[in-house]
């Protein structure tokens, strides 16, 4: 993570001004209809969480057709292929550029793409299908311009970025898959805006906490412990916690349910609880506070009312965990990516978010999440859209290409 | 409600020992197969809450066939008919004996009666269909024995006793129907055990309380008010309330729900809250305490967190209200009914429950709920059953007949 030796602005300026880069961008432009066609093809293959396989297989074939080597699907369902560098010749370490295959939309969602002027609309089209097609366009552009990189580049279409997937694809890539321990830098291409550089990975931990008790008739069994009273005390105590504003740390009691009828003391009630922090340490601290509060709430309920029919207990099930992390502003990947944004006429903006880059960030591996093009909106909504106006989109796409080439070292 | 002039034990002893009463009981016995057939016929006509009409119409025809006068269905759906007395000749006031038409079971429940030895099993068969058939058996028995009563008797099959019905049938009978202000004593026949005399009507009030707020992203909008925090404070404060043990007063936070996703501060959450008391005054006091706690919980949440996106509010919707009441142990109806239980060889047991008799009790009209026969169980369950062994059942049935005749004054 040492700062690069050469002046990064100069390095990137030289790269962007090179005839090869101009040829590559010209190819992005010349090939643009194909990129749009790929976006549509991939968007119209549904890829709900945990059901990305069909789209993954299609993308695998596309990676093969683009001449990458070692094209494969790993055990988690990620698909990937290598564009070997001149220095490491496919032996690694690898610079990864990834886009996620999954969408938030359940099976049965109509994913037919509609066109309205310069807008394409369909669930998942911007988040993150456009990026999948953009990665392919990069391969074609580099090939057309005869660009070789020093380092090996691994192109990845990964599973499990969205909510319930809990970053399982990238987690596998770094912790278990064939590239474990062999990745030196990581880009996730996710979102639209080419100015946004996510270098802070907001960590999160999510629980479903179920409080259980003996239950009974509301009148006949009055006086026995009630799991809803224990849950209420827990929420009340949690909402007295004041987490730090910096690093930003938050929580939310978000979803609740339980009980069977108004005239019954419930057997079970639950709440879902979300915690996030820019700091792994603060997140861990909040997590400990939560567990302490849950313990105390249950003990307090068992002390306050009769346990003759049984006690109240709780079970806290982790339903999501995204490690916090950050890539320093001074890291080579950060410096070069900011320089690429600037060199192409944009104003870089550092962002905090929870993305696939959280995983490498939490492992201390240089990682950023960057935008795939130009404009888009309504992510996670049925009327999700992207703007495909050619000139600004190709310009936006060129940012990622410049950052990738700068980090992988254009030869 | 003055005590009767004559010694009630003597009066009832004389009644039970009379040849006419013996003839009537002999008719209950001789006619028993018909009573069982009526139980089966009525049980197999589904009568979910608010959908009692088909069964009500069938019962109306049965009341007509039994020679009652002024047989009618009132505006609420209760069906009824008069057996005029010798003194009042149908002009009233009336002694009412009622059984409820409704069951707790939803539409589509299989209500086919199965027989296992001396047991008949079907949803609703004991609660309260057997009592409907028992009322008809009483008419036949009185007719067979030539028994006239001094007072008019109104036989009623009423709607809306179970949970969501909230006693709407009997409420209408006393507050709006054609017999409003004309009922001097009320029996509800509900339950099996001939020893049980419900003379205390547990009152209840039930709320669905919805807490609403602006909602927002769990991370982005952290710091704004959360309706779940307000609800938790309300439940916590409610569970610090210690209601009196005598008169027994209870509460229960029973059902909860709300929220859409773990990463969203919820817009709406709700809880259902049940309150009961043997005392109308204590119930009203608890109700006031609840409202105070809800007000305070919402105010406290709006003070504790930002209301920049909106405030938290609550709406408390009454989803059930059964007035508390009691019939004094010294009331004529109580004294005579206890004497009838004793005269027939049982040991009377005074009970508190929430039944159709709550309504007249709350109005100061002498009222009891009594059993319809012998054994039964699993009320409100799909395997509900009654025991129809003839001898003990006929004996159990004779208790209600004796009580009714004692109160209506056998001529």
From TrEMBL, chains A, B:
Keywords: Hydrolase, Metal-binding. Gene3D superfamilies: 3.30.70.360, Zn peptidases. Residues 203-298 form the Peptidase M20 dimerisation domain. InterPro entries: Bact_exopeptidase_dim_dom, Peptidase_M20, Peptidase_M20_dimer, Peptidase_M20A. PANTHER family: ACETYLORNITHINE DEACETYLASE (PTHR43808), PEPTIDASE M20 (PTHR43808:SF17). This is Peptidase M20. It comes from Caulobacter segnis. The lineage of its organism: Bacteria, Pseudomonadati, Pseudomonadota, Alphaproteobacteria, Caulobacterales.
């Amino acid at each position: 993570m040492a700062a690069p030796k050469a002046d990064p602005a100069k390095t990137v300026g030289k790269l962007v001004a090179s005839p090869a880069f101009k040829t590559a961008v010209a190819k992005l432009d010349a090939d643009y209809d194909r990129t749009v066609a790929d976006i549509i093809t991939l968007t119209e293959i549904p890829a709900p969480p945990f059901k990305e396989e069909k789209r993954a297989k299609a993308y695998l074939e596309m990676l093969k057709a683009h001449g990458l080597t070692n094209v494969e699907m790993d055990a988690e369902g990620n698909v990937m292929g290598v564009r070997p560098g001149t220095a490491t010749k496919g032996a690694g370490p690898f610079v990864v550029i990834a886009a996620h295959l999954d969408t938030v939309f359940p099976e049965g969602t109509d994913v037919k793409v509609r066109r309205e002027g310069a807008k394409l609309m369909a669930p998942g089209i911007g988040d993150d299908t456009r990026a999948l097609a953009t990665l392919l366009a990069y391969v074609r552009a580099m090939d057309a311009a005869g660009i070789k990189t020093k380092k090996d580049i691994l192109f990845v279409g990964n599973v499990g970025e969205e909510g319930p997937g809990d970053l399982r694809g990238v987690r596998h890539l770094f912790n278990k898959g064939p590239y474990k321990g062999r990745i030196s830098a990581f880009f996730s291409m996710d979102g639209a805006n080419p100015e946004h550089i996510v270098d802070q990975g907001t960590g999160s931990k999510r629980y479903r906490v179920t409080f259980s008790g003996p239950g009974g008739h509301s009148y006949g069994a009055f006086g026995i412990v009630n799991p809803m009273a224990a849950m209420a005390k827990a929420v009340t105590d949690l909402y007295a916690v004041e987490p730090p504003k910096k690093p930003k740390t938050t929580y939310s009691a978000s979803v609740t349910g339980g009980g069977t009828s108004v005239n019954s003391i419930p057997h079970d009630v639950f709440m879902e609880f979300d915690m996030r922090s820019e700091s792994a340490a603060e997140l861990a601290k909040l997590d400990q506070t939560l567990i302490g509060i849950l313990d105390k709430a249950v003990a307090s309920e068992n002390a306050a009312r009769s346990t003759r029919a049984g006690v109240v207990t709780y079970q806290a099930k982790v339903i999501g965990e995204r490690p916090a992390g950050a890539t320093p502003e001074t890291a080579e990947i950060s410096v070069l990516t900011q320089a690429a944004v600037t060199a192409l006429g944009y104003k870089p903006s550092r962002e905090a978010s929870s993305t696939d880059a959280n995983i490498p960030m939490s492992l201390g591996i240089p990682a950023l999440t960057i935008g795939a093009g130009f404009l888009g909106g309504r992510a996670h909504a049925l009327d999700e859209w992207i703007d495909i106006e050619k000139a600004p989109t190709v310009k936006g796409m060129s940012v990622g290409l410049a950052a990738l080439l700068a980090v992988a070292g254009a030869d």
